[in-house]
Design a protein that fits this description.
Blueprint: E1 8-9, E2 12-21, E3 24-31, E4 36-42, H1 45-48, H2 51-65, E5 75-78, E6 82-86, E7 91-92, H3 99-118, E8 131-133, E9 139-141, H4 146-149, H5 153-158, H6 173-180, H7 185-188, H8 195-211, H9 221-230, H10 240-249, H11 280-309, E10 316-320, E11 327-333, E12 339-346, E13 349-356, E14 363-364, E15 372-376, E16 382-387, E17 390-395, E18 402-406, E19 413-415, E20 420-423, E21 431-436, E22 443-447, E23 453-458, E24 464-469, E25 478-483, E26 489-493, E27 500-502, E28 511-517, E29 520-527, E30 532-533, E31 538-542, E32 555-557, E33 562-565, E34 575-581, E35 586-589, E36 596-601, E37 607-613, E38 618-624, E39 629-632, E40 640-645, E41 651-656, E42 663-668, E43 676-679, E44 685-690, E45 696-702, E46 708-714, E47 725-728, E48 734-739, E49 745-750, E50 757-762, E51 770-771, E52 777-782, E53 788-793, E54 797-806, E55 812-815, E56 819-823, E57 837-839, E58 845-851, E59 861-865, H12 867-870
Antiparallel strand pairs: 1-2, 2-3, 3-4, 4-6, 5-6, 7-8, 8-9, 10-59, 11-12, 12-13, 13-14, 15-16, 16-17, 17-18, 19-20, 20-21, 21-22, 23-24, 24-25, 25-26, 27-28, 28-29, 29-30, 29-31, 32-33, 33-59, 34-35, 34-58, 36-37, 37-38, 38-39, 40-41, 41-42, 42-43, 44-45, 45-46, 46-47, 48-49, 49-50, 50-51, ...
Helix pairs in contact: 3-8, 6-9, 8-10
């Protein structure tokens, strides 16, 4: 059956052809019912015209649909002699690849094959053309089982001409040769095949990934099949590490071949160094090195011994350094206790770092920039984390990260054995959500009227999880145990702390909940089976403090009792507001250090407004710069953030979470009048500027998909209509907007390019847009005369850009080259929409909220094996 663009097959509208082969033609199509794109594979006439074989094909398609594996392209259904399949973006597999990348792809292919083999399904046509690599580095095996189900096994074993790999169109010789090149010898002979044929093809594909060349080739199909049957593979071009594996996969006798694809890792060989004769002079310096290596090896062996085989009651304590010169944000140990992942900042760049527990140092993980709050999959093979407004995952073995769903300001996640992830997608909005580990649309698990819920941690049953609520009254905040179905939501601790669950030791049936109380790591005996407390709290370690706005517990524990924790506090715990000149020279601190944020200079530059955090609420404060006194501006037990001065300095607009979500409020700067709800809304709003002519309030609004849009609210000062109006609404984040002093231009931040950049557009909105930053930037501010813009670069430097603007019927704007002023060390959350600096009207002094110790190395992490045996109960 042939289809054309515009044709319809049931609810599917054909959009474009994708390709064709002996098994049929493939089209891109739109599912008009579910509004998604799919791939439609039309079956050959030989199959579509046989009712019995078509019925058998439909039954087999249902079996394939049950696979539901992340590395197998899904089959959605059968429609009138056609298969409806997942449309996989990306490119077909094409080597050569570096060894690490090839093994990463090989692992994913092997897992797909193993899942199919366990269901009794054999692919029989595995080849690079049937293997797609998505932009996120995920391997998808296509056409799974089609070769096995499109031909009757009895006839295919007797007649090689009916093999699906031999019935492709003779006009496409390259396809024929390519397919024949991956056939096992028994398949080439027309014999019955089983899963060992896939193992042979796996070996051939792995060879091609490593070398970029076909293992078996020939001018004709006969030459190629002869090579498959007779030629012994030459493996001299592949790394020694994989030769034993390839030899096992490429045995021509299937009885001698690797019997189960899941055993492929066992045949990877570590390369041993060659031994060469050493001169006496070389031996002289080798002895000290050998001695040092001996002690390093001994320490590693000691760790492995205690880590894997230490008997109950025996505890080992030691420390491991954070990545050199880094500031640690968060960390997690793998469930098997073998690997540590750290979100750490080095030279202004934060990313994930991976360290085997018996290694000497950590290694950075590519594709994990801006990562926070990492967590592991139960099998210790994947790492979940938050970055760039997304929940992501990355293979511990390396490769690109995959975005799973939106998480604008993620605050912790956990992964169960059913491949469900629970996570906190945003700050302050009171939700825990769940999403499939393969990615998709997230859904709410907990939605309560109290508490902003964060840092969920699954219990062993994969149904219950712990999390913390930190907003409301002292009767509502604390540590909770909840369930995925939302039916249980019970407080078990009144402490304001996130928590982790430590599984039972081998000699005990009771697990423990670890949390912080008064700068001490505490343990609460807890029966995970009944989800009930089963003992009294006892201390584990002193000097452990919550970090990241007093919510994150800097501790992690593996399934086999390896505990890690950080003492002395971590980055982000203490900030300092201070003045700096244009060279970055400190002109003195403003106030005491603490959990302070959002500094804003009054128009007369005699006062500043800022936010001070406590565990249960955030308050705004005013500081008189001449007298050095501070006055509390908000007094309700709520979260008040983002203060903005009116141009006369007599009023303040701010965001408050008194009734979820954040709404805009206005209050007299003197603090004498009542707060006024300025803009009631069902989505969160955050003020960013009160224009200097007093006519507009610029604010960012989080849409239902948690994307920020820029809005403008007329104030009524010279404007009759106070109806809010959008300035810029797109599928991307547009936020941190600032009107120029004459209100003719809007500077703002957008992530449309894939990273945050600073742009300028005319105001009111009209044609024209100018890019200000280069290689990343955010949070623009104008100089008082409108002739210079400032912003924070992606590397944390404060930048200045000369600008020239001409308003009129055809507005024009010119921006010079951004120049770095100094390294700001700004206490900025990469996902936030708040300003952490302000600048005086003359552009000579900057008021910046910095993190104390920014750039300083974090203290080492403490490691304790068999931690519960050594704790004071």
């Amino acid at each position: 059956m042939h289809l054309s663009v515009g044709d319809r097959l049931s609810v599917y509208e054909i959009l474009a052809p994708i390709g064709a082969g002996g098994m049929g033609e493939v089209y891109r199509a739109k599912d008009t019912r579910l509004d998604r794109e799919v791939a439609i594979k039309v079956l050959p006439a030989a199959v579509g015209g046989d009712p019995e074989r078509l019925a058998r094909f439909e039954r087999e398609a249902k079996v394939l649909a049950s696979l539901n594996h992340p590395n197998i392209a899904q089959i959605y259904g059968v429609e009138d002699r056609a298969l409806v399949m997942e449309l996989v973006p990306g490119e077909p597999l094409k080597g050569p690849f570096p060894l690490g990348t090839a093994l990463n792809y090989a692992r994913q292919i092997a897992e797909a094959l193993e899942a199919a083999h366990e269901k009794g399904i054999v692919h029989r046509d595995l080849k690079p053309a049937n293997i797609m690599v998505t932009p996120a580095g995920v391997v998808k095996v296509l056409d799974f089982g089609l070769a096995a189900v499109a031909n009757d096994p009895a006839s295919s074993s007797a007649d090689p001409a009916k093999s699906p790999t031999l019935t492709m169109r003779s006009t496409q010789a390259g396809m024929i040769l390519g397919t024949a090149a991956y056939m096992s010898p028994e398949q080439a002979r027309g014999k019955a095949v089983d899963k060992r044929a896939d193992i042979w093809a796996f070996g051939v594909v792995l060879y091609e990934m490593l070398t970029g060349k076909r293992l078996f080739d020939g001018e004709t199909i006969s030459d190629t099949l002869a090579a498959v049957l007779k030629t012994e593979p030459d493996l001299t071009q592949v790394p020694a590490k994989v030769r034993r594996l390839l030899e096992a996969c490429l045995q021509k006798d299937p009885k001698l071949r690797l019997q189960a694809i899941g055993d492929w890792r066992l045949l990877l060989t570590d390369v041993q160094p060659q031994v060469t004769a050493l001169s006496p002079s070389r031996l002289k310096w080798l002895w000290p090195a050998a001695t040092a290596l001996f002690f390093i090896a001994a320490a590693a062996l000691a760790f492995v011994y205690f880590h894997q085989t230490s008997p109950p009651g025996q505890t080992l304590r030691y420390t491991i350094a954070a990545p050199e010169g880094s500031t640690v944000h968060s960390f997690a140990i793998s469930p098997d206790g073998r690997t540590l992942v750290v979100a750490a900042e080095v030279n202004g760049k934060r990313q994930l770092w991976l360290r085997a527990m018996d290694a000497l140092q950590a290694q950075p993980m590519p594709f994990t920039e801006e990562a926070t709050y990492p967590f592991w999959s139960p099998d210790s093979r994947y790492i979940g984390f938050f970055a760039e407004g997304k929940l992501k995952k990355v293979a511990a073995s390396g490769g690109p990260a995959q975005s799973l769903c939106d998480a604008p300001d993620g605050r912790g996640g956990s992964w169960n054995r059913d491949d469900v992830i629970v996570f906190s997608p945003n700050n302050f909005d009171g939700r825990i959500q769940q999403v499939a580990a393969a990615g998709g649309v997230s859904s709410d698990v907990t939605k309560t009227s109290f508490g902003d819920r964060r840092h969920p941690v699954f219990l062993p049953d994969g149904r219950h999880f712990l999390d913390m609520a930190r907003r409301g009254t002292d009767q509502s905040y604390g540590v909770y145990v909840s369930t995925l179905d939302g039916k249980e939501n019970r407080r078990i601790l009144a402490d304001l702390s996130s928590a982790v669950f430590a599984p039972p030791a081998r000699s005990d049936r009771t697990g423990h909940i670890l949390f912080v109380r008064e700068n001490t790591l505490m343990a609460l005996p807890f029966n995970a089976a009944s989800a009930q407390v089963s003992g009294e709290v006892f201390p584990v370690a002193e000097g452990v403090s919550l970090t990241s706005n007093n919510t994150y517990l800097p501790a992690a524990v593996s399934d086999n009792g390896v505990l890690l924790y950080e003492t002395g506090g971590a980055a982000g715990g203490t900030n300092q507001i201070g003045w700096y000149d244009r060279t970055g020279k400190s002109l003195g601190p403003v106030g005491m250090p603490g959990a302070v944020f959002d500094p804003a200079i009054s128009p007369d530059e005699k006062s500043i407004m800022f936010r001070r955090n406590s565990p249960t609420h955030f308050d705004l404060w005013v500081r008189d710069l001449s007298r050095g006194t501070e006055t509390r501006f908000t007094s309700d037990v709520s979260f008040n953030i983002a203060p903005v001065w009116s141009p006369k300095g007599d009023r303040i607009v701010f965001a408050s979470l008194r009734k979820s979500p954040y709404n805009l409020y206005k209050k007299a700067a003197s603090g004498s009048a009542q707060d006024e709800l300025l803009l009631p809304n069902t989505v969160a709003d955050f003020p960013e500027q009160w224009s200097r002519d007093g006519r507009f309030i610029v604010y960012a609004e989080a849409d239902p998909k948690n994307k920020y849009d820029l809005w403008v609210l007329p104030t009524g000062d010279g404007t009759a209509d106070r109806k809010a109006m959008p300035f810029l609404r797109t599928e991307f984040d547009e936020l941190l907007g600032q009107l120029s002093p004459d209100s003719h231009w809007m500077a703002f931040t957008s992530d449309r390019s894939g990273q945050r950049e600073v742009y300028v557009r005319p105001f009111p909105p009209s044609d024209g847009e100018w890019t200000i930053s280069i290689a990343g930037g955010q949070a623009p501010r104008w100089r008082g005369d409108g002739k210079e813009l400032y912003f924070e670069a992606a590397d944390g430097k404060m930048m200045a850009v000369p600008v020239k603007a001409v308003a009129g019927p055809k507005p024009s704007f010119e921006a010079g080259t951004p120049a770095a002023l100094f390294d700001a060390h700004m206490a900025t959350n990469v996902n936030s929409g708040l300003f952490e600096y302000d600048v005086t009207a003359d552009g000579k002094r900057f008021l910046i909220c910095t993190t104390i110790g920014s750039g300083a190395a974090s203290p080492p992490l403490t490691v304790v094996t068999n931690w519960s045996a050594g704790a004071k109960k």
